[in-house]
Fold this protein.
Amino acid sequence: MAGRPRKASDAALIAAAARALHRLGPAGLTLAAAGAEAGVRASTLALRFGSKRGLLLAVAAAGAEGVPAHFAAARAGAADPRAALLAAYRGLAAGLETPAAVANGLAFLHLDLTDPEFRALARAHQAAVLAETAALLAEAGLPEAAAAALHALYGGTLIAWAVDGEGGLPERLDAALGGYLAALAAAAGTGLPITE
């Protein structure tokens, strides 16, 4: 006898858990809270993911695995590679609409830095973002080596915005990253090196 069909896909449950995580942070997240966000019982999440830790690992894994598709969507919706980069990084910040959400993201980073399983997934995510960033920089005729600096500028801008709360985060990211891309383009046009 076949079991009942699943009403919610794992991907939908993971997306709901990620939304709850932005709101509550890893310490405040429970299977019940993630289930409420997804419209399912906590027991459903326990059956699918085993535990809160299993669910958090699934969120981290989905983030790493989803990077190529995320950048592909940004490419498809943008007029040029520089616009695609800005769209991709705005998308990476989706769900971080408040300083509290950024703080919750930093709390998750604590797991990434202290737990080997989470760290491996964080490294995979970072490597994928850097590879996609370098590819778009190359398409824009800009140095691929600038990918690490652009990624670091993204992280710094998130924190600076969370501290001062000035303006909207998408606009702050566009100004910071767009300014850096413009400087890269200007340096490329003059032949001046901007990165080693």
In short: Residues 66-196 form a domain with the Tetracycline Repressor; domain 2 fold (CATH 1.10.357). The radius of gyration is 19 Å.
